[in-house]
Amino acid sequence: MSPIAYTATIIAVAVVLFVWNKLPVVFVAMLTALALWATGVLTLGQALGGFGDPAVIFIASLFVVSSGLEVTGVTAWAGQLLIRGAGEESRTRLLLLTMVLVSLLTALISVNGAVAALLPVVVVIAVRLRRNSSQLLMPLVFAAHAGSMLALTGTPVNVLVSEAAIDAEGRGFSFFEFALVGVPLLAGTMAIIVLFGKQLLPERNGATMPADFSQHAKTLVEQYGLASGIYQMRVRASSPFVGASSSGIDLSAYPGLQLVAVQEGETAGPIRREQLAEGDHLLVRGEAESAAVFAAEMHLAFRDEKVAGQGEETLFNRSSGLAEVVIPPRSGLIGETVFPGMVTDSGDLIVLAVQRAGAQIAAGSATKDAGGMVLQAGDTMLLQGTWKALDVHLDDPDVLVVNSPELVRRQAVPMGPGARQAVIILFAMVLLLATGLVPPAVAGLLAAGAIILSGIMSVEQSYRAVGWTTVILVGAMMPLSTAMVQTGAAKLMAEHLVNLVGDAGPIALLAGLFVLTAIMGQLISNTATALIVIPIGVAAATAMGISPRPVLMSTAVAAAGAFLTPIATPTNLMVMGPGGYAFTDYWKLGLPLLIWFFVVSVFIVPLIWRF
After folding, report:
1. What whole-number distance in Å separates Cα of residue 147 and Cα of residue 154?
2. Which residue from 469, 489, 495 is spatially nearest to 12, judged by alpha carbons?
3. Which residues cross the membrane (predicted)?
């Protein structure tokens, strides 16, 4: 068999296995790369070269940047804005706002970056509003494809066609000239998804969907009886507590009040100093009247008058959070004595409450003066501290954490610590991508490095943030493009098509090139497809005596219509798992969209850029 025949056979087998959907997609992709080497079509270096491709590095770095935005609560903030703007009942408004947001972001940072940034937001929205993720994630990606035609930076294909126009005519496409065709593409895409998406998309969720922690704090404080009567009071300069010992605070003159904890002013963590200072906080539990009298007499100020006494606001905020832990069998803490207000051995966490068999231990019987409570297996404790302290000190075999503080913070704390730095890093990356000062992979690596150096994420967290399934899949499938170019299979297909339709006029040429580009774009990357089709289209336009500009723009539109398979683009693959999609789900919604792209490419493009 010839190299072209081997390549065609490998493609056919890979497509069949993908459609069959019985083998992991990563396994099929690796088999494809190894088959190209085993048949002699590519060398081993070429067959595995996709893993070192700049595009793969860029995708991996975008996962880190996206996770940084999620960890700091930027995505939670964006999700709250989406829900607030769309309402909880309106599917149409939610879809429209989501698609507008992703398309605008795509125009600035490319399809991969926009989808990677908004994917966790949309998944959380699906969980929070009890909607199937499959109804939201594919519209997110397909709107991003349409949005890639709004600006030059939307996709590498736009840059390729602009450079080809410069080579052919000495004048490329301006930054926003793509929007002339991008706006109708996006408008039609949104209309099709809103009108027909519900019927054409499956009703299912991914195999693993995150829990909804939007009301986590309220749930915990209610369960542990802290929903009201918790007050955080700031020590004023005139307070008699300034300079006093933190262990000598006496509330016996205020019946019904109990000192829960003393917090250091700047960090909101347990105080480590011997003496109190202005700005420190007392966490007090009791009746509102007694708390008001205590605050007035001791010159204390409620930290926030609007939420005074609301446990979830006082205990759960940007600086500090809550964590519920269970004492497992054989824990080293069994037999230890604890009481509300106790500071743990680390000095960073406060025990707020203890429960046994789901029942609250009476505050009076579990105090330090009453001897506290001796822990048994199965007891639960509610701990409070800074988010950093919760992350660091709960990785302990003596306790089982019910819900990861990191996951809770990502969803429930909008614009938390580090959010400003994360947004600055994102805009810096967008600026680098928009100006082209450095290659996209370099911009992504610089942004990911900044996320780590700024302390937003650790190196270990960044490793976990990368979607390795997507990275491996993209890297393993890239050599297929190399094989099609190197063996001449792609060029042979293109030349035959141009010879077939070239004499039928320029409209037929656009139609033929669209079909070729669209078909190839479902199997290999749209960038590789464009690299193959662009020179053939320019040559055909020259031979026919027409301007290459409509041919090039039509090719860009066709390359963006990668809707029919999950392997068409990395972003299609990104949503496959979270959306619970099968291989055959893509073409049902993708085919109507591809028809609209065909109409725009063949009939609208020539009206804007004349032959």
Report:
1. 7
2. 489
3. 5-20, 26-44, 56-82, 94-127, 139-161, 173-196, 423-453, 465-485, 497-517, 523-544, 589-609
- Please identify which residue in the block is written with the tokens 């035609």: 149
pLDDT, one tens digit per residue, over 483-507 is 877 888 877 776 776 777 766 778 9
Query: Is residue 117 within 8 Å of residue 442, measured between CB atoms?
Result: no
d(CA 46, CA 55): 15
The β-bridge partners of 283 are: 232, 261
The three-class DSSP label of residue 495 is helix
Amino acid 387: pLDDT: 81
Q: Round to whole Å and give the CA distance between 97 and 121.
A: 13
> Coil, helix or strand for 314?
helix
**What is the rounded distance in angstroms from the CA atom of residue 341 to the CA atom of residue 317?**
19
Q: From CA 61, how far away is CA 447, in angstroms rounded? A: 8
Residues 6+ apart with CB under 8 A from 226: 220, 285, 311, 315, 352, 353, 382
C-alpha–C-alpha distance, residues 16 and 6, integer Å = 15
The pair phi, psi for residue 228, each rounded to 5°, is: -145, 165
Kindly report the pTM of this predicted structure.
Answer: 0.69
Q: For the chain, give every residue range classified as CATH 3.30.70.1450.
A: 216-302
CATH number for the domain formed by residue range(s) 216-302 = 3.30.70.1450
Per-residue pLDDT reduced to its tens digit, 209-244: 556 676 777 788 778 777 667 788 889 999 999 888
> How far are the Cα atoms of 70, 110, 125, 133, 205 from residue 576, in angstroms, in the given order?
20, 19, 17, 10, 10
The CATH architecture annotation of domain 320-402 reads 2-Layer Sandwich (3.30)
Element (H, E) at 166: helix 156-169
Polymer length of the chain: 611
